[in-house]
Amino acid sequence: MEKFWSAALVCLAAFLFSVAQAAGQPGGNRPASEVQKVREWAKFARYEKDNAQMKSAPIAVFMGDSITEGWARQRPEFFSSNNFAGRGISGQTSSEMLVRFRNDVIKLKPKAVAILAGTNDIAENNGPIKLENIMGNIASMAELGKLHGIKVILCSVMPAYDFPWRRGLKPAEKVKKLNAMIKDFAKENGFAYVDYYSVLADSRGGLPEKYSRDGVHLKNEGYEMIEPLIKAEIARQLEQ
């Protein structure tokens, strides 16, 4: 019996030592590639070089996910001709945007910021999250912008009937509810609100094929519908 407990104690000590050793190292014994992914959770490096090379402050920064990233990539003239900066990162949730908001918005000292967030939260890219917590992240970005003298424009989440990378979540109703929360928050706190949803949504609460190939990401025809809305609102904010 004594031998049994001695062996058990040795095993336990070895296990605790391995745990302690792993805790003292970034990522423990995980492969370097996996550790790197953990370190780059918010993707601070994505726009680090672009931010450093900016010679003057942009009129407005567009903070968002792949919809914003695709916007700047597909229609660069809209951004360059208006002195707008696109800071969208594919797949990002509102939590990740909030974490990099200081680097990709505040430090650029824009006059305005257009925040488009929530699609990937509803898609559960980082796991389930309550709508109230998504709204909390968006609110925090808005409050940070206001604190630094930046005109904040909150944008409605785009319509989505289903997500091609995560089928069956039935996001349409959640998108409507989140948009109502964003609109109410904007009204109660003096922020601008731009309603992309109403000009794009079909009868199912999704994106029609004329605006999107996959029901989530916009084609040029979709961006052409919303560009006048956000451009006009930025101009209104700068006049105040």
Q: How would you characterize this protein structure?
A:
- The protein is of the alpha/beta class.
- It has helices at 2-23, 32-39, 48-53, 66-74, 76-82, 94-104, 119-122, 131-147, 172-189, 197-200, 220-239; strands spanning 60-64, 84-88, 112-115, 151-155, 192-194.
- A five-stranded parallel β-sheet has the order 2-1-3-4-5, sandwiched between helices.
- The radius of gyration is 22 Å and the shape is globular.
- The chain has two domains: 2-37; 43-239, 3-Layer(aba) Sandwich (Rossmann fold).
- The protein is built from eleven helices and five strands, in the order αααβααβαβααβαβαα.
Radius of gyration: 22 Å
- Our count of helices gives 11
Report the sheet with the most strands, covering strand number, pairing sense and barrel closure.
5 strands, parallel
For the record, the count of structural domains works out to: 2
Q: Going by CATH, what is the homologous superfamily of the largest domain?
A: SGNH hydrolase
CATH second-level architecture of the largest domain? 3-Layer(aba) Sandwich
Secondary-structure element sequence? HHHEHHEHEHHEHEHH
Globular, elongated, flat, extended or rod-shaped: what is the shape? globular
- Termini, distance in Å? 82 Å
Provide the β-strand percentage band.
Answer: 5-15%
Report helical residue fraction: 40-55%
CATH class of the largest domain: Alpha Beta
Short recap of the structure:
This protein has 240 residues and is α/β, with parallel strands linked by helices. The chain is built from 11 helices and 5 strands. Helix 6 (94-104) packs parallel to helix 8 and helix 8 runs parallel beside helix 9 (172-189).
